[in-house]
Amino acid sequence: MVYRLEMTPRAGVGQGTGKLIEQASQYFGFEIQSAAKSDVLTIKANISEDEISKISKEIVNPVLQDGIVGQIKERTFDWFIAIGFLPGVTDNVARSAREAVGDIVGRSLEEDEYIFSSREFFVTASSLSREDAEKVGRELLGNVLIESVNVLSYDEWKANGAPENLPLIEDETEPEVHLLSLEMSDEELETTSKEKTLALTLREMKIIQEYIRKASDDPKRKELGLEGKITDAELECLAQTWSEHCKHKIFDAIVNYTDENGNKEQITSLFKSYIKKSTEEISEEVDWLVSVFHDNAGVISFNDKYDLVYKAETHNSPSALDPYGGAMTGIVGVNRDPLGTGIGSELLINTWGYCLGSPFAEKSDVPEGLLHPRRIRDGVHSGVIDGGNQSGVPYGLGWEYFDKRYIGKPLVYCGTVGLLPRQIHGQSGADKSIIPGDFIVMTGGRIGKDGIHGATFSSEELHKDSPVQAVQIGDPITQKKMYDFVIEARDLGLYRFVTDNGAGGLSSSIGEMSTQCGGCHMDLSKAPVKYAGLQPWEILVSEAQERMSFAVQPEKMEEFAALAAQRDVEISNLGTFNDSGKFHITYEDKTVCYLDLEFMHDGLPRMEIPAKWDAPVHEEPEFDESDISDDLVELLESLNITSNEFKCRQYDHEVKGLSVVKPFVGVNSDVQTDATVFMPEALSTEGIILASGIAPGYSDIDTYHMMASVMDLAIRRTIAVGGKLGHIAGLDNFCWPDPVESEKTPDGQYKMAQLVRANKALYDYSKAFGVPLISGKDSMKNDSTKGGKKISIPPTVLYSTIAKMDNIEKSVTLSAKRAGDKVYVIGDTKSELGGSQFGLLKGAIGNSVPQVDADYAISIYNAVSTATEKELCHSVHTPALGGLAVAFAKVAIAGQLGLDVDLNKIPSDDLTAQEILFSESNTRFVVTIAEESAAEFEEIFEGLPCACVGRVTLDDELIFRQGQHIEAAVKLGKMSKSYKSTLDNV
Amino acid sequence: MSSVKTLVITGFGLNCEKETSAAFETAGSEVSRIHLNDLLETPEKLADFQILAFIGGFSFGDHLGAGTVFSNRVKYGLKQQLEEFINAGKLVIGICNGFQTITRMGIVPAIDGLFNQEVALQHNDSGVFRDSWVTLKVNEKSPCVFTKGMDLVPVPIRHGEGKFVPMNDEVLKQLEDGGYVAVRYADPVSGEQTSEFPLNPNGSANDIAGICDKSGRVFGLMPHPEAYLSPFNHPHWTHQKINGTLPKEGLGLKMFRNAVDFAKENLV
């Protein structure tokens, strides 16, 4: 029997369609007068009339909704738009409804009983054509990658009623393994790679061809009927394992680098030569590095009870195609990294950051085939908001950076901090192992076609044929249930090894786990699938979400399975780990893969990539004299400085009750902080400081100084809230345009040289500051050729830090606290307007990019830390984009107090007022101090650039003077408004 | 005297178990965290406790409306035991998703008896989830056990569906007249209730943030007192520290102390 349950808001309760009306006007210029909405459940089950009315009564909220079994007939509207899910797509609402229905009828529904959810909209818009209504349905209400859209006119609806929503799968395809001969021409090899979205180069295809030729001698392959042939799954599996996304071929390549003077240098692996090397060298000096680079996330020690785990990722390509879904899987995906680190860590804090095109970009600036940046921004935020909030993990850092080059590809950074027990079951929480004979167990969501080719497609540029099925669909609640289960099973010691299933799916997770003990045998027919018709290779490489892989010791298997059942978590035992040296996969008795593990993981020789550095020379701008007040106001309004509080407040930052210095601070909690402080558990005195830095604008001049600057920025932000050097770890997340010279990328050598220079700085400053890198990630093909226009992102590095704080009670925020306090500026201001936001405002890049002197920076940091340790500072803030002018403004706005600042007293060379106020020189702080603490404070800074430049005042304005002459005066109200209005409600 | 025992129900996307446990433990109670599925297997265990907490989170992803699926499961699996628990004069608190759950289940305000839904929590007027600190004004006329002796309480809210809606005007009148309203959103400066956004963050009727039943022993609210256990949780604590107004402990803790103290005196 098929029932339809329609729920609609009760009279007087809002329809919740305001956003639809607003966005239809904003995105498309459509005028919708009104819109009503129904939520519909379609239930195909063996359920009686009595039962369905009981179900209706229980599910409908009597205060908010009217509900009816059947269809509400009396309505007036112009267009009916129904949004349901496509066959096979995870329908989370329906899953919850299944639980409720089961509780009500007193039995679980059978496999052949179905519930589907859908949404119906009744739109009154006299001027809307059918085509327009389709557009609203397809682009605004639905997502055609995963949802069906049905549009009917009023008359059609009146005559036939709403169409029945039963997206059943009727694929009867038998699972098969196809054998392929690779004895083909080079051209055919390339075509094969392209057609199958393998993203394998000709060189790589030839290596595989050679391997298959050699493997023909293997009697076992003969016996399995694979002689001279490769299976479809083997080819897919190698493509995943060798994808840029998984293998980091560019960071591992041999680089032939020529510097600006023609000096040549050969670098074998940027990763090993700069990133890993600096950490290894620092590890000889510090005792708090627990596990770096080899697990899913880096681990550092925190205290006797806990270690800290931190990882950041990007999810750029999926977010470009499906901003909501792509970004959601970005955040819930990176959550699984700490969860799969060591023996499994609890999730503590999320971080996010997005590089986007302006939400106010002209439509004509967006090439055809790309989504408008405003839609990308709205979708990305919503995805991470829903993913993070529903997982119960607070966000600790969030930022946005805008540049028109991100119109081609948005960058979506997501990170997660985890808490790992220092000791568990008599061993370090960071340790795990696999012993031959352990079972291969997968938990979590079922496997579907979603996310197939995710790893390979994100390893190439976004082009018109980019596969839509590469986007995964996230379900935070399935993952939350699995997460709770993993932590419970961990504490009971029910498994030996855990890792996450991310890019490359089982092929990647089990492939990597197999190297722990030397082999595996796995039967894919035992893996739970969302629907029939999946081919073995699809099961192997699907990136369906919410899955973790385990090695379970046989004696614990029963208990592991029982606990999973009790927690409504699906698990499957797929086979055993062994020491055969083979990645042996079957589907029932069919051989799917029989590959040498060694070849999978070490069979790919390094690439060789040329790089040549020619320092760009930009026109040196001559800035005319301008009104400082106007410039400051314009900067406060500009996208890279203005407050994005409207979006940020939609992210939970308080869950767990651990937040000490929050993302927004000040008397009105409306100014973005330098860094945040969290307790690791309720009522703790120790804390964790999170900070980050990003400055793609400097990459246009020199990526070496860009990198140095973002490192200084993150570290000095840590210092600003009360941190100190000595227990800070770094994370590097590189996002680059394709740096390999080719027809498509004629400037590859320059882009590769930019990459080399950024890495050199990363090594130099990690070492100098004693801040080791514990984890990182790179995304190397951030270009788009859609609409016939190539857009490459500016080289972008997110540098994030995590630091231990001994006593949270000594945290400092940036707001001015008390009138009469003295205002100090610490650190030299230099003529460094190159790549600055002020330059951007005036249309200039220039060449004088901010630089970092590490030794000098360390003495400044140490002095500031001494001052905060002694609790001398009422406020500390560190200038970033927009320089000192913006920094003073933020201190004033946050405290709702005035500042009177004498520019002549600011430590600097002989500079113009513009240079003093808007240079983005590194290693500077603005501090306010009570009169009575001033002498002790000044003593700490003896011999360092530090000067009292003015006072905090009760006047509601920020005054910049040069002696008696008032250079500029801006009212607090005006500054607040400028800082807060640009993205208010956007 | 044996100690007070609190039950925190977990699972299915709930996520405030740690801080809620910490709140009750700090207030002097023993705390057991039990997954709903385990509790439903041995429902008689509920009788071992004096305080029951329905905590915050996203049970079943808020699908079909916040609290719907979870309250349905509790109602079908634990109705009798819950009824006995409440009739025995024991304490129930529902926070955020827990508040949505207990209103959906109809154990608060329960003007017309148990398991009869009379109020609901609707989508915020702003249309979006919001995280911010608000100030609560305690209704001194309410018999609410949890808010006894409290006046103005700063606490965070974090919800998308928090707008308090009564079934009809009659229900609202009964809530007001009968002292069911326990806490309202207020202006921190004047201390008066307010409908002004963002002080009232969701557009709740009569600025209602939390209600109790007529005994005052079953209490639900949208804000999160368990997220203000430490004085360093407050958004302005760095200002309070300099002004000398930093409290010794987080002001949200008092609600849990009130509950545990009441249970100590009356229930163990």
CATH architecture of chain B: 3-Layer(aba) Sandwich
When the domains of chain B are counted, the total is: 1
Query: What is the beta-strand fraction of chain B?
Result: 15-25%
Name given to the CATH homologous superfamily of the domain at 812-986 in chain A: PurM-like C-terminal domain
**Alpha carbon gap, first and last residue of chain A:** 46 Å
CATH architecture of the domain at 812-986 in chain A: Alpha-Beta Complex
Q: What is the overall number of helices of chain A?
A: 31
Largest sheet of chain B: 9 strands, mixed
Q: Numbering strands along the chain, what is their spatial order in the largest sheet of chain A?
A: 20-22-19-23-21-24-25
Let me know the CATH homologous superfamily of chain B: Class I glutamine amidotransferase (GATase) domain
The number of E-state strands of chain A comes to: 43
Q: What percent of the residues of chain A sit in helical stretches (DSSP H or I)?
A: 25-40%
User: For the terminal residues of chain B, how far apart are their CA atoms?
Assistant: 7 Å
Task: Please list the strands of the largest sheet of chain B in the order they lie side by side.
Answer: 2-1-3-4-11-10-9-6-7
C-alpha geometry of chain B: globular
